[in-house]
Amino acid sequence: MKEEASRLSSAHQSLLALKEGHLRPVAEPYHGVNGQECACPFFNPVTQACAIYPDRPLDCQLYPFVLVFGQTKKRILLGLDVQCPFVQDASNEEALLGYGEYVRQFLEEKETVEAAARNPGLIGNLGETIFPLSPLKGLTEKLCQATLFGDPPLPSFSLTSLTLKDRTHFSEESFVPMIAFQDLLHFYWKKEGEVLFIVAEQGNHFFMPIPPVAKRLTLELLAASFNLLDALNQKRMSSRIEGLSEENIPLAEELGCTFYPKSPEYFYRRTDLVELAGDAYKSKRSLCNYFVKHYPFTLGPYQRKDFLACLSLFKRWQEKREKKTTDPYELALLEDAAFVHRRILLHGDALGVEGKVVKVGGEVKGYTFGYPSGHDTWSVFLEIADPGVKGLAQFLFREFCREKKEFPFMSAMDDSDLERLRRVKESYRPSFKKIPYVATRRPT
After folding, report:
1. Longest dimension (CA), the chain
2. b/e burial code for range 397-419 (CB count within 10 A of at least 16 → b)
3. pLDDT tens for residues 11-41?
């Protein structure tokens, strides 16, 4: 940035001008960014010291954290360069994560946002070695003209911002997805007697991700929910309530709502997924057997020491998926998934989410996370398997199901309206599917 260069001595300013910016390719690299080996003109490779350390520029202060545009160019993100040797050393993980949160807060400060906005050259592209950690609200609004979240609702609405500490008020079925998507949506809640209202915000629009939680959903509760949403949305657009069951549709119709189905949630008999018996599961069974026969593997519980290895695996998986699609919707889902996986990898224990990791030759090649979503169902929430390891995905899914003997049913969540995912979930022969509905009502 110009204001940073002005703080340097005249000699250092001359050196900076000669080198055409801070970074240049050299034979002995300082550090790599997005796979490019670079060196700073102020870095002495002999002494391993920086000549201008007290006045080093912002991008140097941030590294290994970097500012990048998201894949869809609609968000500015705080990223982490996983190629940095400090990042690759797992013993530095706690310090790294703590500093990362400090950096995120610093980048959301008004003065920092204004300075970075004046110098958009600080913001790079999401390269192969950069893992996205979180969207940056201020810079996204400033440079992408996109709104992540608005101002908090007025106190008169008595809504509380959702945090990990609020877990006792929720079931795992509702709490885990909300915390997982907290980088993408802002969640609020309030309780009135025995009724729990949950509100989500995205781009200054409020909606309910699930109907009010009560012993029984009544017309009065549904009307109260829409009235709350209409007030929050200031009657600018239709309010909506997601997650309604088919039996709730008559109530929505009575309120004059329109409604439509979302992609179904897939349910399976657990024993079917473990036994993989019969011709219907012949290919799945064969793939599991192939993996067991050909790979030296271990299967164990996820531990925090696996965090960075799982991040790197997700990044490789994400890049392969991105190369196979040009669909903007699927690309946006892949970008969103990075934030969801990071949160689960970080906060799984606090959420009551259980994870398993498969290592081949000591290297993490697959992981999965799930949680109980009712007295008879276990939900497999996340699963990543290295596509280069034949049979791993089928093996990991089967073994996770094998352990959940107390649950007669397994849920594989929905298919996100992706034909590829639909085919995979259908290939496991679901026992039944549940279709959630969305009800919308135009403000009066």
Report:
1. 78
2. bbebbeebeebebbbbbbbeebe
3. 444 443 434 343 333 333 444 444 444 567 7
DSSP state of 300: E
- Residue 373 in tokens: 């979503």
- Name the nearest CA neighbour of 188 among 203, 206, 204: 206
Going 387 to 391 to 395 to 398, the CA torsion angle's sign is positive
Question: Could you tell me which residues are beta bridge partners of residue 188?
Answer: 161, 199
Buried/exposed 79-104: b ≥16 CB within 10 Å, e otherwise? bbbbbbeebeeeeeeeebeeebeebe
CA–CA separation, 214 and 361 (whole Å): 50
Q: Quick one: pLDDT at residue 29?
A: 42
User: 380 exposed, middle or buried (CB, 10 Å; 0-12, 13-18, 19+)?
Assistant: buried
* Cα–Cα distance measured from residue 435 to residue 425, given in angstroms and rounded to the nearest whole number: 15
**What span, in angstroms and rounded, lies between the C-alpha atoms of 316 and 384?**
10
Q: The whole model's pTM is what?
A: 0.85
Please enumerate in sequence order all residues whose Cβ is within 8 A of that of 412, keeping only pairs 6 or more positions apart, or say none. Answer: 265, 266, 267, 268, 380, 425, 428, 430
How far CA 170 is from CA of 191, 213, 381, 442, in Å, comes to 11, 9, 17, 29
pLDDT tens-digit readout, 77-132: 999 988 888 887 777 777 888 888 899 999 999 999 998 888 888 898 888 788 88
| Of 104, 110, 159, 155, nearest in space to 133 by CA | 104
